[in-house]
Amino acid sequence: MSDFVEIFEMGPRDGLQNEKRLIPAADKIALVNLLSSIGFRRIEVTSFVSPKWVPQMADAAEVLAGISRAPGISYAALTPNLKGYEAARAARADEVAIFASASEGFSQANLNCSISQSLERFAPVAEAARADGIPLRGYVSVVTDCPFDGPTPPAQVARVAAALRDMGCYEISLGDTIGHGTPHTIRAMLKAVLAEVPAAQLAGHYHDTRGRALENIEQSLALGLRVFDAAVGGLGGCPYAPGAAGNVATEAVAARLADLGFETGLNPVLLGKAAEMARSLRLENP
Ligand code: HMG
Ligand code: MG
């Protein structure tokens, strides 16, 4: 029996944000335009964060202005605060995302504030998005392991996920930011989160540092999740998560899902081309 699973493409944002060489906006635009022909419903294009913190995303408005928008695709952007939200709205992002951490150590490293301060900062973003009719997504990072605080208690993930849901996030993406999760720890985490938020409002966002992301996706499928974030070419890493490797590669997730009998609606030939383009952007780095 076939079943639809959506892959939310992260390559232009999570995939590229950690690259040291400043990639020209034209190359990012070309990648997004190619991705727009593959069958994705949602593509995370960029983030409106401090350019001092993440210089690679300083061209967020230029990239969103330069892409050719295909009908039916939601072009998304990360927004850590109201300043970022207002810039994303001006750049006509179709949806925005706020991003919290399940550990205090990663919250400080990534957002320069505690978890509760970050939630306070997100509240006006959520309010503005609701008033403007812009869909709001939420992330929880370090859902199994934190590079600063060690193993993450599942109850802590559930608490933050519920807070984001209460703020109006239509979907909460659960980030194994450093790719140390195993089917066992992912299962324990999901069990706790599912007691608060239904599977239909959850997504898995797994980095592949230890090569276990596909197993973790299978575990999540078994618990009812049907949306996964991935980046073409396995690009990625978070600048504030030491040792974090790439996102799980979209083409690998699509192939595994096909083997398991799930539909993704993605064109495998064009996906291969996009993976090649994504890898070439990285290879051009010194
Ligand atoms: P801060 O230094 O505490 O902020 O950083 P601030 O409010 O004091 O502002 C400092 C400066 O930044 C000021 O400029 C602000 O105007 C400017 P100055 O007066 O010094 O010239 N500023 C901004 N500029 C542009 N856009 C903005 C913005 N906000 C302030 N939105 C802040 C706090 C949140 C801004 C900072 O920590 C930040 O930008 N963090 C983002 C870090 C980031 O992007 N991390 C990667 C994304 S998260 C991720 O990858 C995980 C995920 O993939 C899931 C997973 O894998 O787990 C989503
Ligand atoms: Mg990530």
Automatic annotation (TrEMBL):
Keywords, alphabetical: Lyase, Metal-binding
InterPro entries named among the record's database cross-references? Aldolase_TIM, HMGL, PYR_CT
PANTHER family recorded for this chain?
HYDROXYMETHYLGLUTARYL-COA LYASE
User: Is this entry keyworded Ligase?
Assistant: no
Where the record annotates domain Pyruvate carboxyltransferase, the positions are: 5-272
- Which Pfam families does this one have? HMGL-like
Keyword Lyase assigned to the entry: answer is yes
Q: Which family does this protein fall into?
A: Belongs to the HMG-CoA lyase family.
The name this protein carries in UniProt is: Hydroxymethylglutaryl-CoA lyase
State the Gene3D superfamilies in the record.
Aldolase class I
The GO molecular function terms of this record are:
lyase activity
Question: Which SUPFAM superfamilies does this one have?
Answer: Aldolase
